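#struct-help
A.M.: can someone run this one for me? Single chain, 148 residues.
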Amino acid sequence: MEIAIIALGCFWGPEIKFSKLEGVLKTEVGYCGGNSNKATYEEVCTGTTNHAEVVKIEFDPKIISYEQLLNYFFDIHDPTTLNAQGPDIGTQYRSEIFYLNENQKNIAHKVLKERNIKLSGKIVTKISPDKNYTTAENYHQKYLEKRF
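D.P.: on it. Structure tokens below:
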């Protein structure tokens, strides 16, 4: 099994979308890229922690590849808006791929380059090493499944 960590706006919608993909075994929402390994939703929303809202995805690479996950990532959000997705505005809603190893880093750069050609160089998605991942509060986990 492998892990992918991605930021693409508010984590509720993407979590449910990724959880429905064949080969995805588990999803979890959290915060990544910040200054410390502990953060709360309230702190992240201040914009001072440098965390992004993320989806952590456990997947079986024999069924779905990291590259396929990243292509889906680009399909389900707007990677050309800086620090915003729809009505959600702030650095915590940025588009970012957090890689866990060199292979993921290389694949992320490859996919971003291919997508950026299609979007005339307008992609603002960052590619960064995994840094200070923190699981979000329990009430955020599977939030949309709990509500509908």
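A.M.: thanks! The chain has one domain: 2-139.
D.P.: also worth noting: The mean pLDDT is 95.
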